[in-house]
Every structure is written in C-alpha cells, then in structure tokens.
Amino acid sequence: MNKIDYLRISLIDRCNFRCHYCVPEGTKLDYILQQQLLSYEELLTLLKEVFIPLGFTKFRLTGGEPLLRPGIIDFVREVAALPQCSDLAMTTNGFLLDKLASPLFDAGLRRINISLDSLNPEIFDKMIGNGGKSRWQQTWQGIQTAYEVGFNPLKLNVVILRGLNDSEILDLAALTIERNWHVRFIEFMPIGNNKLFDECAWIPSAELRQNISQKFGLIESSIKGNGPADVFKIPGAKGTLGFISQMSECFCDKCNRIRLSADGWLRPCLLNETGEINLKDALRNGVDCDRLKEQVRNLLLLKEEINFKERDMGTDGVYGRTMSQIGG
Ligand code: SAM
Ligand code: SF4
What we know:
The protein is of the alpha/beta class.
C-alpha cells in the first residue's frame, strides 16, 4: 500500500458560488451548524496528536469555500508553523483572494489552487450559477493578486463540460505559455450533478490533450507534483498543463490521501464511506487520542481501488452529498 501522508481538510461546507457540476441548481443543502463544525482548536489537536504522529505531513485546506470561514488566517499561521508540516496548500474559488492573498501568504501559506472554469465572464457566471452581478472580474483579480504576492507557481483547476466551456480549452491552456501557471484539467465526476453526467457533459482527458496538442503541440513535463495529475507542457511554455483523469484512468494505486469533512467525518476515499469515523464526536465524547490514532490506522487499511466510472453514486451525489459538502 502507498504511504498515506496527505490529509485534505474541509473547513466549511458553505460556498459563495453554486457551480453547476458541484451544487446543481435546485439542490437544497442542509448546512452544518456552526457548533457542529470541527473547531480550529479541535483540528489542531487532531493534527498534533493523531495525524502527525501517524506520519501525515501534507495538508490541504478546502471546502465549500475555505475563505468564508472566519479566523482562517490565524488557523493557517498555526498549521504552517507546525514543524512536521512539510506542505500546506489551499483550494479556493478565488473570489475573496484579492483581499486575502497577502495575509494568507504572510501567515505561511505557499501553495494555492484556484478554480477557474472560464475566461469569458458570461460563461463563467453561467457555470458558477450566479444570476446576479458578474463575479468573473473579482475572481480574475484575486488570481492576479495571488500571483503578485508570491504564490508561484500558481495552479488553476478547470472542469470542462461539453457545451458549456469546451470552447475555451485552448484559451485556458494558452494561459501557461507566458505565465508560470499550472493549469490542471479535472475530469468531471458524477458527484453532485448526475443529470449533467447523463447528458454526456463529461470529456475525457485524452480528448482535451488531443485538442491542445493539435494546436500547440504537447510534451511530457519533467515537473511532477505529488498528486495524481499527468503533467505536460506546450513546447517553450513557462507553465505546465496537468490532467487529472480519475474517470478514464484509475489512479487509486498512486493515492496518498484521505479526507476530513468540516463536521469531522474522516473518509478513506472520495467515493468510499466504508468505515467512515467521526473524529469530532469522538473528541467531544472524551475518546483519547491514542484510541483515535488506532481508529485512523484501521481506516487507512480500508483504502481500496475504486472504479469511479462504474461506482454507483446514488442519484443525488455520492450517497446524497455534493463535493462542497464532502470537501473537494
Ligand atoms: N470552493 C473551492 C473551489 O472551488 O476551488 C474548494 C472546494 S471545490 C469542491 C474543490 C474542487 O472540486 C474544485 O476545483 C472544483 O472544480 C472541483 N469539483 C467540484 N465538483 C466536481 C465534480 N463534480 N467533478 C470534478 N471536480 C469537481
Ligand atoms: Fe464551486 Fe467550489 Fe463552491 Fe463547489 S465548493 S460550488 S466547486 S466554488
């Protein structure tokens, strides 16, 4: 089995966007109540007393939208200062980054992934489900600010949906030519919006690569991240292109991560609730950290290979939960 040393921590299930593929229109979400969220203090206890002693050194803060959680800067500072933390990253939609990129950087965050599905404000607003004022400009500004304050290389996460933003594959890929940005195309998964999936909105990475290669050429990059992306680059480009192909190519054998939801559920895999344990309840019921370590160790043994495409995810997201609720 792979060494599992990477924990994705969802800080909040709420979000200021409602992306089509994540929280489809009409979805009624029951948000986690404030008192049911793992507090920062509880999270730090779990990191120091359970995860770090078990060998976890890499942490990613996500959500929902992590920047909506009050007190995020101080929390980042505390996690970044843990001597055993070798890598701290965040995934955000970027909307609040114009103000927060600089304090986050000062607090010790060095790696950030920003989701950006379109360079066209109209398509962008359609994809994030915003019926009102356009959010593109502020998001784009957030990305620029993050880059300027020193998040370098900067990673952009893109989900391409047929008929929505597939006309922009080349423009998004071209962002890497002049900038040291890493654009990562993530295959759409039928989590949250199975209906979209049934409508064949999913585009396999191989098709994206072929389109990009025909226009610009594509070579394998020597820069590899520690994640599941296959990394390429346009010849002569400053940045890279990553392809995360969990639907078309199983990469479970390379997986090094588990996920903690904002209300304390620890799950061995995005699509696997087997053996899920609630660390918040356990902590609040006075279970000691040695016992928790044992439970987490047992949960790691439940990681198994999963075929994303064939997995029955129910009709309403993974067993009724969207990505924003599980923690993407
Ligand atoms: N709100 C933040 C953001 O959008 O970056 C963090 C949470 S979001 C759930 C994390 C990542 O999950 C985003 O890059 C988003 O594009 C991706 N995501 C959400 N739903 C998805 C789906 N059904 N298939 C593939 N990726 C998805
Ligand atoms: Fe979009 Fe991220 Fe919010 Fe989901 S959690 S709706 S992907 S911004």
